[in-house]
């Protein structure tokens, strides 16, 4: 099994960083060549390059309505990290499913197929009303179902026609050369029975929140069976906030929120997740730039050595 | 008042020459070895380039030769402007991205956040060409099932929401087609400039919505009398509401050192398009959108070349050579400049220009034609050319 490792870019994290307007020099006698111009985009690009240089396979870009948009960011960064996969997270409320695929096709054409789709959970009823999204709570999964069905339909067929409750298409589909691109792998998340059932039919990768490797294996095995009932193979991802230091004590002192330990311990645990069925590791750390280098330098080589050993033994 | 010139990014391929109808730059026609952009090297192997690389070159050419930016069209067979713009954000410095967009294809609040984010990614270089679709099967291809007659009403509400989000910290709206409750952009996003809106559409309903929301009312090239009348009507309508309405023209140009060369290129293009049409008629029918569109383009190719000359230096057969507006400007550099001057006199405050091939013609028109303009402005303002004044100031 090839394991792919992604670094998380959270546009809302460390919001004051690279925004001179939010942290201006105390005295006007202290020069600042930036003026008040935002350097945030250049900062995102640094995180992306940090992930590329420290041998991550891709960037997982969180959906943060209060900050820069994940899909716009993915495209802004794509040509500056020539090999990274870019996985923006976004909800099924973004608009026309056809339009979303059309954007995906252009992205794929321009980046040699480096796009992934991570569907973000729907937001609260109040937040949805603020977006003019009045789909009832009980209908949200049905809307996601149609969104993905229509997206895959217009991508895979010409003359695709569909009339559902939320989306309608007539004679959809792309003509050459727009019909040559792979559909972006779809990552779904959530643990409700209905969500998992939908994911088994329409998701390529199901992402589970942090749980111990044994618990992860249980979830993954169950979900694998669900997908098999539909004649499908699904891959699994684990999302982990990682604090890795030279010693376990230092990691504890760093105020860890997630997986914490020495570089050896973290690499061991990640290898356990892989053994439990995780083919995709979505890692995050704070601050994002510095931790990308730290984990890239200390954890990934150890992890890959272990995985390489496993492969050799198998 | 400064006149702004935009170029166009051909998001559905480009031709090496206006004489040919195949899109031989880009993969909309089969790639052949040695194709300049993108795809195959002379051995027929992947050369590592993609069409986006060619679009980046066109954007750079437009930027270098003095255009504000370019229109990025959106049709079923094109690449998408919401993706092209951020992809090219860091490949250019001043190029402004004019996204062609039909309100309704994205959730309006989500789209507003994307706009702010794009403004941040481009240092405020985003603007829009707002299009209101025609309805029927064409709209349903896009997954847009809006069946109401009042399409411009929907466009208006959509833009009301965009504007409302920029003007208010929190914003609620009860429209017929859209409702939002306590919507808002974060301070970070709302600090960005609201994008300039160029608005297309010729019906009364379109003009009404334009008067509320458009910075520029955009028209395809039409005979001068019609255009003058239309622009005057639009400006009067908006003035009555206490706003100023600028007008703009989208027009293709074939500019050559001599008028004969310009006409000769078009004659050859016209003949080749007719040949292509005959060849196509002998093939089986196809349900491909691209083929249908090409077929529609070539309808009427039986007309005589001369019949399509609708005025001095104006030819109305451009739609036979490519999709889009029929009337374009043809001539030597001075003649083309003088036609653009006439358009300025007709009320045009901005232009979206295009020529084939888009890369080389951006240079030609930017360097050979645009510097010749301005006589009309001088005549109407009654003082010496601003540029010559600037030149003498620099010399002094």
Structure report:
The complex is a heterodimer of chains A (314) and B (396). Chain A has 11 helices and 11 strands. With 314 residues, chain A is α/β, with parallel strands linked by helices. Chain A has a domain at 4-90 and 185-313: Alpha-Beta Barrel (TIM Barrel). In chain A, helix 3 links the parallel strand 3 and strand 4 (117-119). In chain A, helix 1 (40-53) runs parallel beside helix 10 (288-298) and helix 7 (213-229) packs parallel to helix 9 (263-275). Chain A is globular, with a radius of gyration of 21 Å. The model of chain A has no long low-confidence stretch (mean pLDDT 94). In chain B, the strands form 2 sheets. Chain B has an 8-stranded parallel β-barrel, surrounded by 8 helices. Chain B has a two-stranded antiparallel sheet with strand order 5-6. With 396 residues, chain B is an alpha/beta fold. Chain B has helices spanning 51-64, 81-88, 108-122, 137-141, 151-167, 187-190, 204-213, 224-240, 259-281, 289-298, 318-321, 333-345, 358-369, 375-381, 386-395; strands spanning 4-8, 69-72, 96-101, 126-130, 171-174, 179-183, 196-200, 216-220, 246-256, 309-311, 314-315, 328-332, 350-354. Chain B has a domain at 4-101 and 215-258 and 330-395: TIM Barrel (Alpha-Beta Barrel). In chain B, helix 1 (51-64) packs parallel to helix 13, helix 5 (151-167) runs parallel beside helix 7 and helix 12 runs parallel beside helix 14. The longest helix of chain B has 23 residues, at 259-281. At the A-B interface, helix 1, helix 2, helix 3 and strand 6 of A face helix 2, helix 3, helix 4, strand 6 and helix 10 of B.
């Amino acid at each position: 099994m090839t394991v792919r490792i992604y670094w998380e870019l959270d546009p809302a994290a460390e919001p004051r960083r690279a925004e001179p307007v939010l942290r201006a020099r105390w005295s006007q006698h202290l020069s600042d060549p930036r003026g008040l111009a935002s350097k945030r985009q250049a900062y995102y690009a640094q995180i992306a390059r940090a992930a590329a240089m420290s041998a991550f396979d891709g960037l997982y870009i969180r959906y943060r309505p209060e900050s820069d948009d994940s899909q716009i960011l993915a495209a802004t960064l794509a040509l500056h990290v020539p090999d990274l996969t870019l996985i923006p997270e976004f909800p099924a409320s973004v608009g026309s499913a056809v339009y979303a695929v059309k954007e995906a096709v252009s992205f794929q054409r321009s980046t040699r197929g480096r796009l992934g789709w991570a569907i973000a959970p729907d937001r609260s009823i109040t937040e949805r009303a603020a977006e003019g999204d009045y789909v009832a709570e009980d209908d949200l999964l049905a809307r996601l179902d149609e969104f993905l069905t229509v997206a895959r339909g217009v991508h895979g067929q010409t003359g695709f026609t569909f009339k559902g409750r939320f989306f309608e298409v007539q004679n959809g589909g792309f003509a050459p050369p727009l019909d040559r691109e792979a559909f972006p792998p779809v990552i779904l998340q959530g643990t409700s029975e209905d969500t998992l059932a939908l994911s088994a039919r329409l998701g390529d990768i199901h992402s589970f929140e942090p749980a111990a490797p044994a618990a992860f294996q249980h979830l993954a095995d169950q979900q694998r069976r669900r997908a098999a009932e539909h004649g499908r193979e699904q891959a699994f991802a684990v999302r982990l906030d990682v604090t890795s230091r030279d010693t376990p004590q230092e990691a504890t002192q760093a105020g860890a929120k997630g997986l914490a330990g020495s570089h050896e311990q973290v690499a061991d645990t990640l290898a356990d997740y892989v053994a439990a069925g995780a083919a995709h590791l979505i890692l995050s750390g704070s601050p994002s730039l510095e931790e990308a280098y730290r984990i890239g330098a200390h954890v990934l080589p150890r992890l890959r050595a272990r995985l390489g050993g496993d492969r050799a033994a198998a | 008042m400064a006149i702004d010139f935009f170029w166009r990014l051909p998001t559905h391929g480009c031709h090496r020459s206006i004489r040919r109808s195949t899109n031989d730059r880009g993969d909309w026609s089969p790639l052949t070895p040695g194709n300049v952009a993108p795809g195959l090297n002379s051995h027929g192997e992947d050369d590592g380039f993609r069409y986006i690389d060619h679009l980046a070159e066109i954007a750079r050419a437009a930027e270098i030769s003095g255009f504000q930016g370019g229109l990025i069209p959106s049709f079923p067979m094109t690449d998408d402007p919401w993706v092209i713009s951020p992809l090219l954000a860091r490949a250019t410095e001043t190029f402004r991205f004019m996204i062609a967009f039909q309100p309704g294809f994205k959730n309006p609040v989500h789209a507003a956040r994307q706009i702010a984010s794009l403004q941040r990614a481009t240092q405020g270089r985003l603007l829009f060409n707002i299009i209101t679709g025609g309805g029927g099967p064409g709209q349903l291809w896009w997954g847009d099932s809006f069946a109401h007659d009042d399409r411009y009403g929907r466009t208006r509400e959509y833009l009301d929401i965009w504007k409302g989000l920029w003007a208010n910290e929190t914003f609620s709206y009860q429209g017929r087609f859209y409702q939002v409750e306590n919507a808002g952009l974060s301070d970070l996003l709302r600090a960005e400039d609201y994008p300039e809106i160029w608005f297309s559409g010729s019906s009364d309903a379109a003009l009404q919505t334009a008067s509320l929301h458009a910075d520029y009312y955009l028209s395809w090239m039409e005979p001068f009398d019609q255009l003058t009348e239309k622009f005057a009507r639009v400006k009067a309508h908006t003035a009555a509401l206490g706003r100023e309405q600028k007008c703009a023209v989208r027009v293709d140009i074939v500019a050559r050192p001599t008028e004969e060369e310009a006409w000769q290129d078009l004659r050859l293009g016209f003949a080749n398009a007719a040949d292509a049409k005959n060849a196509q008629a002998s093939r089986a029918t196809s349900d491909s959108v691209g083929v249908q569109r090409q077929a529609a383009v070539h309808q009427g190719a039986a007309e005589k070349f001369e019949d399509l000359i609708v005025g001095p230096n104006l030819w109305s057969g451009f739609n036979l050579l490519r999709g889009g507006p029929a009337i374009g400007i043809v001539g030597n550099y001075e003649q083309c400049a003088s036609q653009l001057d006439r358009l300025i006199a007709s009320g045009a405050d901005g232009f979206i220009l295009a020529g084939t091939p888009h890369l080389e013609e951006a240079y030609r028109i930017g360097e050979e034609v645009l510097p010749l303009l301005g006589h009309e402005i001088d005549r109407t303002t009654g003082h010496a050319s601003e540029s010559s004044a600037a030149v003498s100031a620099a010399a002094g």
